[in-house]
Design brief:
alpha/beta; Rossmann fold; seven-stranded mixed sheet; 9 helices; 7 strands
Length: 266
């Protein structure tokens, strides 16, 4: 991990970056990315997984990293700031960043060894959109690797993160916004989607993510959202309050949800 941190010349909080990179390294290990591979990463964000992929493919490999968001999106470091830092690092020559890019409209003349979607599916507005992505991915790659938060939490300490994610998803259901949780997809939905598109799933794994900061971040954000909800049906109000109670009554320190990984060949 040290060589990755040194390569990136990290901007921002070094402790946060170390923690996030630790998890991304474990994810990429499960993806079985090899030297010399050509990888397309969808939903690259600030590039935490991107740099680990670039390290994994080595000098003879390449990563094309795309995101629908603009370079101004993200805090405390924007996507543009992160990408510029990475691009000027020793790993930068292995990566091409494309922001404000719709994968479905993207002209791709090359085939990739693998397409990666890492912690980006909750941004999708519908399962139908995710299905459309899957159908195009089949045309440009032989393999897909998918990682996302696992809402089948295994520890009571992860309950607050689960509740916070549900509050954020309910908020987006009743407002016009570009929040980072549009949908909560269960791993079974993703598995069924892959199988429905003819995938052969060969990796199904849970990766520990409980030590990440994301759970506490989501709780803080969802507590902010509680004061921002528009008028919603009474039953929805009750549901939101129930999630808020369960979220804020957790006495133990907040642990993040784990990640699930599904990898498949077409």
């Amino acid at each position: 991990m040290e060589h990755l941190l040194n390569s990136m010349k990290i901007i921002g909080d070094d402790t946060i970056q170390r923690t996030q990179l630790t998890h991304r390294i474990e994810l990429v290990k499960t993806f079985q990315v090899k030297k010399g591979m050509k990888v397309l990463e969808i939903g690259c964000g600030q590039g935490d997984t991107t740099v680990v992929l670039a390290d994994a493919v080595g000098e003879t490999g390449h990563v094309v990293a795309i995101d629908f968001a603009s370079t101004e999106y993200g805090a405390p470091i924007t996507l543009g700031e992160a990408a510029e830092t990475i691009s000027h690092s020793p790993l930068g020559q292995r990566i091409d960043f494309h922001f404000e890019t719709d994968f479905l409209q993207m002209a791709l003349d090359e085939k990739f060894d693998v397409v990666v979607l890492s912690h980006c599916s909750w941004y999708f507005e519908s399962i139908e959109l995710l299905k459309n992505y899957m159908q195009k991915i089949k045309q440009v790659a032989d393999r897909i690797c998918f990682a996302e938060w696992d809402i089948d939490y295994t520890s009571d300490d992860q309950r607050a993160h689960f509740c916070a994610a549900n509050i954020a998803a309910l908020y987006t259901a009743f407002t016009e916004n570009e929040g980072n949780i549009q949908n909560l997809f269960h791993k079974t939905q993703i598995k069924e989607l892959m199988l429905g598109e003819g995938c052969s799933i060969n990796v199904e794994q849970t990766v520990d993510a409980s030590y990440l900061q994301d759970g506490a971040w989501e709780v803080d954000y969802s507590n902010y959202l509680l004061n921002e909800f528009p008028e919603v049906p009474t039953k929805i109000q009750s549901l939101i309050r129930s999630y808020a109670y369960l979220m804020n009554e957790q006495a133990k320190p907040i642990l993040s949800l784990n990640s699930f990984v599904l990898c498949a060949d077409f």
